[in-house]
Amino acid sequence: MEHKIFILIIDGRKAQALAMSEVFENQGHGVTLAATPELALSQLEQGFFDLVFLSDSLPGDAYFDLLLHISGNFRETSLICLAGRATVAGAVEAVRLGALDYLPDPSLPEELLSSLNDALEYRAMRRENRQKQQQKENYNIDSIVGQSGPMQEVFRLIHKVAATDATVLILGESGTGKELVARAIHHNSNRSEKPLIPVNCGAIPEDLLESELFGHEKGAFTGAIKSKPGRFELAGGGTIFLDEIGDMSPSLQVKLLRALQEHQFERVGGTRTIAVDIRVIAATHRDLRKKVEDGTFREDLYYRLNVIPVNVPPLRERRGDIALLCRHFLERLTRVKGLEEKQMSPEVLEGLMRYNWPGNVRELENLLERMVILANGPVLQVEDLPPKLRELKSGGQGAPTPWELPASGIDFNSAVDEFERNLIVKALEKAGWVKNQAALLLGLNRTTLVEKIKKKGLIEPDGKNGGSA
Question: Does domain 1-137 have CATH number 3.30.1440.10?
Fold first, then answer.
């Protein structure tokens, strides 16, 4: 089954953009138009696009600025440049800056469709190579799906800290992918040939955790019938990942602090000091600062762990990644678990976008697997959603409010501009793109509304740019 392809055309020339859009829409693909750089950036942040066509007709340096931004920040999106005066030098420069292809503008329909197919084949080949590499390396940075602003900051930190031996503290809610980040740091470091040893400090009973971390000697306690090395020894030369470090008891925190400071310890029941060369990465969903204030977490251990903090954002603060994550999980369910291949209706995606995801990425993955198994048809529909998400779709309680503020903060002007744009689009759609009626719905003068439509580069789906009146 072929997936519907989502395409963004960035071109300020209405006639050209509509002509291209028709070529792709006739093939059943979804097309979004952006007449200005600002609108293009907003669309890229809101959702996932398989392919972007970027015209060099944009004013000033906007063409090159967008080329660099898209190729640098949207790794799963293919970029094709359109040049009104195509030259060999221009093609070389565009490819050097990250474009996959370089076409004359305007291009024939068959040239556009051929370029689309080439882009999809290239992406499929790149994913196949990446999967093979991941099988060898277990995890790397490409195993983390996301291209939103908050995730770009996570990727930037991974690249910077991986080259060092600094201790890293990964912070984030349950289900956000903290272990994936830890593995990406390890496998991009100079310790990648050595083991990464994970320990879930919250899942192991307190009386066993010390032995699990540091090992024990024969006869150290009932059942210790032979000596056993701990996770610190097993991680020698590599990395130890201490997950849910915030759940560790105060008494064990003291022993861990010494191991971190001196890189040496004794096994339970032993007297021989063992030295190890390891890197430490810790993670927690707890507020360690608050636990320090409460006296349940040692302040000196907190500062020893918190050398470089990496905050993994919750899914509700990176909604622009939801469409990309859905595609990734649906493909993986087919490839890895052998489940029937499914597509997703736009209405289902809208419902997923409105939900707050307390269980984060893990909850999304589990939900999609359940829907794929239980859905009757080849396309996931609204009725396949659980009741709590169907209620959100129809405006029930729990939908995120427009003024919800992420912990990482927002760009105020961009947020206000996007909120205003969405209101105008909804009013135009409700009024059938009749400007007089839309202006009444918004309580604006018609002239004011027309100016805003032009400023934001809004184009009516049928190309009439505002319909009648």
Answer: no
